[in-house]
Amino acid sequence: MKQFKLMMMAAILLTAACTDQTDSPLQPSAPEENKARITETIRYETEKTTAYNFEYPSTDPYGKPCTLSGTITIGDEVTTAAPARGMVLYNHFTVYRADQCPSKGDLAVQKMITGSGLITVSADYYGFGITEDKQQAYCISAVNAQASVDALLSARELLKGMGYSWDDILFNAGYSQGGQTSMAVLKLVTERYPDIHFTYTFAGGGSYDIPETYRQSIQSGETAMPSTVISVLLAYDEYFQLGIPRSDIFREPTLSHLDEWVLSKKYTREEIDERVGSGAISAFATDDLLNMESDLSKRYMTALDRDNLSKGWKVREGEKIILVHNLADGAVPVANTEAMYNFFVEQGLNVSRTKADNPDIYVRIENWGAISAKMPAHETGALFFVTEAVLKVCEVLGIKLWFTITPEMLEGM
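^ thats the sequence. predicted structure below, dont judge the formating
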């Protein structure tokens, strides 16, 4: 009897010990791993498109875990019973107002893809969508590329769970800031994601060699988009932790209005440029910034060079790329695309400026000027970029052009 009592006591003690374990149903469970989830479904009946806003795990500009947001768009021609022809990872161009990012915007570019049979995935980037309260990591290509790649990976899992499937075609595309991000995405997957292969990368009008963009902007003293120069200066100071006081970088009246004009996310790029009032960089930048020999400029150049896409990595053999740039571009110097062209040539890749050569990498640089006041040179370049990309998509998919490209579609790019 005594032995039985001892056995019972041991069993009770053992049971008590087990209930102390974190996997016990009587104890609070460990926090669920951060997973992607659909947060909103929006129907665009006129365009026959459905958008799925989603949140997903990624990293912030300091490399720490965070949650970001983006959008998946699917045309009615794609169903769970009719597989998509493939996917487009679309990297959006410069936006400033909170409701312009993919998860809150009108999805003009994504809707253009409806009818092709392709599913589109678009990241908001850090500083928009769910991280709207944070300063955007403007033109920090490594940060935005990680946001896009993580969006793609999470979107794939979400779509599988929803019953969708797709062919093994994947396009990586973007213009302006999106062009820079597209090239950064290619660099990132080359270095860290060997299982991701792009059918084609389309990049246009991007700041691939961002230190050269800085140098040319300072030396010319002019920019067609003051807001973009200001935003680059703010972002690199913030996220590369340069610790430069704003008063050392900017002059009045811009200095006193940075939070309201640029960082509030209340205004479009055009509205910010109007408030700055001049394309002369001396109108908003200090003399110290305008001096390429100053310590301030040297600190910026060092930080910018760490994010230079035209050096320091090896492009995979046979990678398919189309680069487009308007020679007359007054916002993003054409030297960026020239630098990428030289970078490809130095690596011995099959690159040409002549399409008839049937190159793996086709670089098109021409002077298209400006179509109108509403379509200045940078936006005009977008028209030719979209044309090149869409024609190649039609060729790869074996389909006819499914929509009409108009300049109005591309205003603001």
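The beta strands are 37-44, 49-59, 65-75, 86-91, 118-123, 170-175, 200-204, 321-326, 351-352, 361-366.
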